[in-house]
UniProtKB/TrEMBL annotation:
Annotated signal sequence range: none
Alphabetical list of PROSITE patterns matching this protein: GNAT
Ranges where the N-acetyltransferase domain occurs: 1-141
InterPro entries: Acyl_CoA_acyltransferase, GNAT_dom
Organism domain of life: Bacteria
Pfam families given in the database record: Acetyltransf_1
Molecular function per GO: acyltransferase activity, transferring groups other than amino-acyl groups
Species this chain originates from: Paenibacillus prosopidis
Protein name, per record: Acetyltransferase (GNAT) family protein
């Protein structure tokens, strides 16, 4: 739902097909941790933690970092501060693994999301460019 909503706003952070059971199982089989947030018997948010991300972070990828991926909040719960709660939860999980850096990335042209991460204490590291896309890398100590 979040992917479709973003696409309708002209923001191509994700494609809807990235959120399917096969992709989630692939993450889990690769050692990632998948989290779902539930409120009143409804899923309200999700994120995935990975312990390496050489595709995005290239030479900066390291064993001291935890990487937040597929961070999303159900649009019906906008304004409930679920996103901030999920980020704090991810940070705690990363700390429990004795990692010292919390990292994430987002599309460079998603101005609102980039500001959201800055507002939540993440520091801009650099911009990377792929084929037809650009992303900004952020981390927090």
């Amino acid at each position: 739902m979040s992917a479709r909503w973003l696409n309708s706003k002209g923001i191509y952070q994700w494609r809807p097909e990235y959120f399917n059971l096969d992709k989630v199982i692939k993450f889990m089989n690769n050692g990632s941790d998948v989290y779902l947030a539930e409120l009143n018997n409804e899923f309200v948010g999700t994120y995935i933690l990975t312990w390496s991300d050489p595709f995005i972070w290239k030479e900066l990828d390291n064993l001291e970092s935890g990487y937040i991926h597929k961070f999303a909040v159900n649009r019906d719960y906008q304004g409930f501060r679920i996103g901030s709660f999920l980020l704090k939860s991810a940070e705690e999980q990363i700390k429990l693994k004795r990692k010292t850096l919390i990292r994430l990335d987002c599309m460079a042209d998603n101005i609102r999301l980039n500001q959201y991460y800055k507002d939540n204490g993440f520091n801009f590291i650099r911009r990377i460019n792929g084929e037809g896309w650009s992303a900004n890398l952020y981390e927090k100590k």
